[in-house]
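Quick one, T. Sequence first:
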Amino acid sequence: MQSPLPLARELVLIGGGHAHALVLRKWGMNPLPGARLTVVNPGPTAPYTGMLPGHVAGHYTREELDIDLVRLARFAGARLILGRATGIDHAAKRIHIEGHAPIAYDVTSVDVGITSDLPNIPGFAEHAHPAKPLDRFAHAWRAHLDRVAQGATREVVVIGGGVAGAELAMAMAHQLGSDAVTVIESGAETLSELTPRARRAILDEARKLGISARTGVEVTEVGPDFVMLSNGERMPAAFTVGAARARPQDWLADTGLELHEGYIAVGETLQSLTDPAIFAAGDCAHLSHAPRPKAGVFAVREAPVLHDNLRAALTGRAMRRFRPQRDYLKLVSLGGKSALAHKFGLSVKRPALWRWKDHIDRKFMEKFRDLPQMARAPLPAERALDPEAVAQADQPLCGGCGSKVGSGALSGVLETLPSGGRADVLTRAGDDAAVLKLGEARQVLTTDHLRAFTEDPWLLARITAIHALGDIWAMGATPQAALASIVLPRMRPAMQEAWLAEIMEAANAVFAAEGAEIVGGHTTMGAELTIGFTLTGLCERQPIRVDGARPGDALILTKPIGTGTILAAEMAQAARGQWVADALAAMSVPQGDAARVLAGAHAMTDVTGFGLAGHLMTMLEASGAGARLQLSDIPLYDGAEVLSARGIRSTIWGENHKVAAQMVLPETPAADLLFDPQTAGGLLAAVPAGDADELVKKLRETGLSRVAKIGEIVEGPSVIEVI
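Structure tokens:
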């Protein structure tokens, strides 16, 4: 949809912490016209700290622990970059991101949390698990439980005897059983930050769970199955946790901002004391006007003020002041479904407090699961008569290949065009690309463009480049040159330059790796971001076409299917963020090496907009043969079958499904994915059956881990049998 105003300002949220998650939710209910919002986070989810002990104890699933940032970003209309921020150049107003081009900002906010790693202990980085960041810790804990279930030893060592370490120790002991957990504390006693009464109450619960403690000693080394203590004791440890005093992220030290003990120093408005264009919240911020301990409650209370002040920084309005409360209620989980409440020096312990805590935590997470349904613009009361158009108005137009026009419409028009009969044009409509004869050389020519399915121009450019190269690779050609065709949304000139820099850097990296060059292009402004490339390639021998499949050939597919369904679900906020992230990551993997492995294929095509069934049918009709597919052997993207079972379809699915008239297949959600349009999809190759297994092995060595032999070419009419 075209913005009512040109884009004029870039707001970037670094980190998906609690404050930023709440800002995203609030922004989605009232976006600021003229501003683009970006969130940068290492993964597609952000775990909620308040529920981590409950997850470790087994009271909550991993999904219950996570805030889905992919879904939240879609709700907010924000760009989500899945990458780890590594620096801020506040002079150039650029944010550096691992594995991504630098991005520009006008205003930025940092909410990246803290870390519990202990780099000064030899072996910690290789063999231990810091309790923070929480996402990596939760994954490591689940892996330990799986090993224990298979007969591995249980022993856990927790480094750090504060409240955080005690909570984790009790949760682990509840899950693993008595005498499995030991806490190591370098101080004279554990839980020294609590009042004597609260300390006694927690230690009493720890003893009931069989937790032991070593105080007044330090860990001097961590090994794969042990820890060494400063008193010479060697303790068995199948799982070692770092829960000692947390520290700030290392990269903050190089930002040039004023820091307090490594944390970004902010004032009453949550702005950096060095640069008013930079805000910070949560554990990574130091409230210079009102110092407070690191606790999630402050991040939650900061969120409304942060949201309003970020908008104020973008609009020139006056800002609010953040005034934190002096003390806060601490609810400490005690392993089982019981908790201790502590405030103003008073403490109470009972199961009812855990139920209260559970209610508070679930209510907080519900904010991100039940996102408000924003009202759509009503259809005009008077409109042209077309029931099908009204039905289509209820489904958003998909991006990527999901927005293609059906193959029937294109082929029907092409068939009406007169043929010029040029001898130097060696192919006609129906092949993946045109093959032109230039003297003794053969040049392959193709073009492709994608309507944006992601708000990230860098990622869209990378995937579009890989997608466009599919036709070159499928014909066995070597990529040569590229022309770019880019439509940008309306925006101020400085933003145009920044967007184009991201796009061209991403595309050039893909083309250069294949030995091709970007030689020019065309840019214009329009309603939405669209990126396309016209490519040439060179063939030293006869190109691989779609008409060479022979009965007895095996069919190999280099990537899973299901991107159209996943992207359609993501638009509707119905897909898990991890499913979306996994699909985007796979779409970003080039296939040049795979194409070279398949150079001896009898026939090959790339599976894109017309789906696996449609592209296979084109091969069969051109080759005068049929095919038999083993449905269970066809790789599917995680989540695709679940979403297909819910009836989620890409825009072009209905047109693609028309090929089912030439198929024999079951009516199942997995079978429905045969008609799903793919973006940057896999190569489909017909190869000699005797070579198939070795080719699959070699293809996996190129990095395409889910390559599969999915069927065979058979004699007979052009019919696809799915068994």
